[in-house]
């Protein structure tokens, strides 16, 4: 590569296509622990590079014949790293914008449902852990919990020959900015949001038992409060359950965001009953969550599990109600950065004037294992 830099889109495409590329993360270990690019190598060389040490990367062993993409937080120190590697004769480039820009990187996986005519495409925001879904049947499709720019979903829909007619949300999000409203504006789709009085713009309210049709396929709304009061899951053709932040493949939702301590405890009780309602649906149901706590590899393997597998993995699901509530409250993780601002913007249906990734920085913290 002649250029000293590479964009997020270009690196994403190389990883998706399996091209020979090695990502070298030069950030301090504490920063890498928060979030990283899947399968990247790490050398804690940030301070040495900042200090101008010409030997900062001398000991790192890198694969021959690969483009080496250096990564830091914002794409500045990684440029120094790329220059040092080029002086060693290696093909190297710095990731423009660093991990901040990588926050919007994505990949996909298809989920097969033998008894449904719908095709489910899991759209994974690997730089953040957000999972959204494009579900199509015949020539129409819906999107659930869009966390990426509208063009991502519009382009995917065109690839599959679908027109997006509906955009659904499982709840009002606190860790990322919803792209549902701009996607509806671009596509002309109907915007479905669980019934509540917090949203300040027009939407179609979703209530218990409501059905959204996708050609011959059907999504049925199940009100599953707990993570938030309005949280709603969607059952697709009795085959798969899109759970938002209510139930994950290895954990359950947190009940405390935008809530007082007493409200969080009340929500924890609500969550207990919602989870046990879901557990009664049947062991073969595929759980399709709204987030994952790990960077999603470019492997086309869906972040999903059967309800039986989830029941086995998540010890909280086996506790009696009082013990569940106390355990949940004792395990609440730190709150997502800027969550008050994110919730306010999502309630107003607005996007920030500045780069949205400024607000969305950091890993998602929605799950309790």
Report on the architecture of this protein.
By secondary structure, the chain is of the alpha/beta class. Helix content is 29%, strand content 24%. The strands form four sheets. The chain has a seven-stranded mixed sheet with strand order 6-7-8-9-10-11-12, covered by helices on one side. Strands 13-14-15-16-18-19 form a six-stranded mixed sheet. It is globular. The chain starts with a strand and ends with a strand.
Helix content: 25-40%
The chain-level structural class is alpha/beta
| Total of helices | 12
Low-confidence parts: none
What proportion of the residues form beta strands (DSSP E)? 15-25%
The main β sheet shows up as:
7 strands, mixed
What is the molecular shape? globular
Radius of gyration, taken over Cα atoms and rounded to an integer in Å: 21 Å
The end-to-end distance, rounded to whole angstroms, is 43 Å
The order of strands across the largest sheet is: 6-7-8-9-10-11-12
Number of strand elements: 20
Instruction: Summarize model confidence as the mean pLDDT.
Output: 96
């Amino acid at each position: 590569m002649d250029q000293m830099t590479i964009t997020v889109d270009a690196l994403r495409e190389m990883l998706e296509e399996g091209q020979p590329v090695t990502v070298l993360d030069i950030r301090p270990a504490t920063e890498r622990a928060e979030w990283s690019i899947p399968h990247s190598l790490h050398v804690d060389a940030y301070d040495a590079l900042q200090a101008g040490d010409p030997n900062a990367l001398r000991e790192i062993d890198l694969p021959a014949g690969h483009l080496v993409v250096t990564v830091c937080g914002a794409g500045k120190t990684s440029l120094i790293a790329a220059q040092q590697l080029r002086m060693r004769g290696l093909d190297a480039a710095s990731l423009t914008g660093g991990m901040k820009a990588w926050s919007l990187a994505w990949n996909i996986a298809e989920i097969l449902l033998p008894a449904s005519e719908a095709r489910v495409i899991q759209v994974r925001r690997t730089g953040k852990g957000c999972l959204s879904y494009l579900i199509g049947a015949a020539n129409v499709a819906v999107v659930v919990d869009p966390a990426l720019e509208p063009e991502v979903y519009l382009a995917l829909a065109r690839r599959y020959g679908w027109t997006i007619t509906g955009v659904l949300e499982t709840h009002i999000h606190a860790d990322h900015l919803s792209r549902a409203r701009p996607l509806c504006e671009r596509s002309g789709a109907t915007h479905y949001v669980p019934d509540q009085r917090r949203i300040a713009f027009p939407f179609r309210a979703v209530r218990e038992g409501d059905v959204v049709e996708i050609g011959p396929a059907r999504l049925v709304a199940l009100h599953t409060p707990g993570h938030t009061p309005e949280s709603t899951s969607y059952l697709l053709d009795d085959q798969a359950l899109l759970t938002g932040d209510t139930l994950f493949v290895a954990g359950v939702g947190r009940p405390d965001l935008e809530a007082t301590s007493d409200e969080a405890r009340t929500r924890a009780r609500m969550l207990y009953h919602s989870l046990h309602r879901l557990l009664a649906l049947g062991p073969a149901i595929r759980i399709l969550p709204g987030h994952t706590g790990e960077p999603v590899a470019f492997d086309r393997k869906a972040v999903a599990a059967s309800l039986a597998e989830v029941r086995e993995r998540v010890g909280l699901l086996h506790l009696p109600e009082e013990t569940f509530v106390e355990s949940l409250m004792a395990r609440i993780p730190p709150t997502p950065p800027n969550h008050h601002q994110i919730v306010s913007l999502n309630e107003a249906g607005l996007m920030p004037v500045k780069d949205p990734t400024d607000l969305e920085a950091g890993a998602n913290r929605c799950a309790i294992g």
